Amino acid sequence: MDFTAILLAAFAVLIVNVEGIMWKLHPNTHKCLKEELQSNVLVTGDYEVQDAPGQKVDYIVKDSKGHILSQKDDISKGKFSFVTENYDTFEICFISRVPPQQRGIAQEVSLVTKRGVEAKNYEGLGEARKLKPLELELKRLEDLSDAIVQDFSQMRKREEEMRDTNESTNSRVLYFSIFSMCCLLGLATWQVLYLRRFFKAKKLIE
């Protein structure tokens, strides 16, 4: 395996990601999962909620501005998908609803999320375009390469923003230090002149 293949595999681990989680959702509570995502990223999720008579669970996916990307009430098992428009923090919330007269139980919720290249359905794409297995794999590698390039671009952009912020901060600190030194020198000069006049008034010095 050459260096290019190793580099491609390393970035595939960073960009192509599958996450699975399972937890207990207690009655009349909610659980939210948050994550920062880049723009134009496809995200898919498979969820399953343990059945409990009389209890209902809803889910909602929204961004930091409160825009709803996906939502469904009274879920049991299903899927959702959305594409991010901007770099933002997104959250997936599961909400338990139990009638007041009923004593609820904790329900087990499982969630598997995929994003990036892994979230795409290449099998369906191959069938729709009648692609051969090799062509399908080349298409997947092409998408992975594009994702790596976009990730590099985002990293470069964030590095430039951080560098600009550091340079701006350094400039402000420098100007503030110069201003502080000028104030201290001016205060020291005024203090010396004041004390000199005071001592002359008291005829302690000539």
Automatic annotation (TrEMBL):
Keywords attached to this entry: Developmental protein, Membrane, Signal, Transmembrane, Transmembrane helix
Keyword Cell membrane in annotation: no
Family named by the database record: Belongs to the EMP24/GP25L family.
TM ranges: 173-195
Domain GOLD: from-to ranges: 30-140
Cellular location(s): Membrane
Protein name as catalogued: GOLD domain-containing protein
One GO cellular component term noted in the UniProt record for this chain: membrane
Membrane topology value: Single-pass type I membrane protein
SMART domains assigned: EMP24_GP25L
Coiled-coil intervals, chain numbering: none
Superkingdom of the organism of origin: Eukaryota
Main location: membrane
Signal sequence range: 1-20
